[in-house]
Specification:
alpha+beta; 46% helix; 8 helices; binds zinc ion
Length: 218
């Protein structure tokens, strides 16, 4: 049954990048996007088209998982040149870049060593919860995952990955594509949180915009 026209259902898709336990990784990211229901259909169609250009015979067998595409170890990414793999990740992110502004990105970046003995994933969830009411909204919204949703989850995976590469490797080529989609008000990028202690001069969009706003108010 279709929901009544007046009901606007905002769907939220989250994924993580980086691992809490891998000591080689300094950061853990929880990120994704929120979209209106009709937008999730549009995103699914766009990513289906991209999948078709990669595997015309089996587009539904193509799953976009950014770290797998990047490492080129499993089909259909095996045999891709590094440039082609990077281009595929960017093509996925471009779907978000091209989406209407009601599609918003958000992410929490946790510097693991800043919070010794604590679960970085819990910190990321709490931050999302207090800043955007994400937890409450999750609890209020009938939550479902079906085949149509999986393409949007794959896009969420790419958002988390783009943010992870920006902080972990100083590689902003993915992040820059979707940077303008992070929720922003009066020049403050609320959609991006960077939790790191002892890095007061950080020039990332989250820290920089917050400092500028604080100096405006004082
Ligand atoms: Zn920062």
């Amino acid at each position: 049954m279709e929901p009544p026209r007046t009901a606007v259902i905002h769907l939220l898709y989250l994924d993580d990048a980086g691992s809490a336990s891998n000591p080689k990784e300094e950061y853990l990211v929880l990120g994704g996007l929120s979209v209106y229901e009709s937008q999730s259909h549009w995103i699914t169609r766009e990513l289906d088209k991209l999948a078709e250009s990669i595997e015309p015979g089996d587009p539904h067998g193509v799953e976009f998982h950014a770290s797998e595409i990047f490492s080129r170890r499993v089909p259909p990414w095996k045999g891709l040149k590094p440039d082609e793999a990077r281009g595929t990740i960017k093509s996925v992110l471009k779907v978000l870049a091209d989406a209407r502004d009601t599609a918003r990105a958000f992410a929490c970046v946790v510097h693991k060593a800043s919070f010794p003995g604590r679960d970085p994933m819990e910190i990321a969830f709490r931050t999302l919860g207090t800043r955007w009411g994400v937890i409450r909204r999750l609890a209020d919204t009938p939550f479902f995952v079906d085949s149509r949703a999986s393409r949007v989850i794959q896009l969420a995976d790419h958002v988390a990955y783009a943010v992870f590469r920006r902080y972990q490797a100083g590689d902003a080529q993915y992040f820059d594509l979707v940077a303008s989609k992070f929720d922003e008000e009066d020049g403050v990028v609320h959609g991006l949180a960077h939790k790191e202690i002892g890095n007061p001069g950080c020039m990332c969009p989250a820290c920089l915009s917050r400092r500028i706003n604080e100096s405006r108010r004082s």
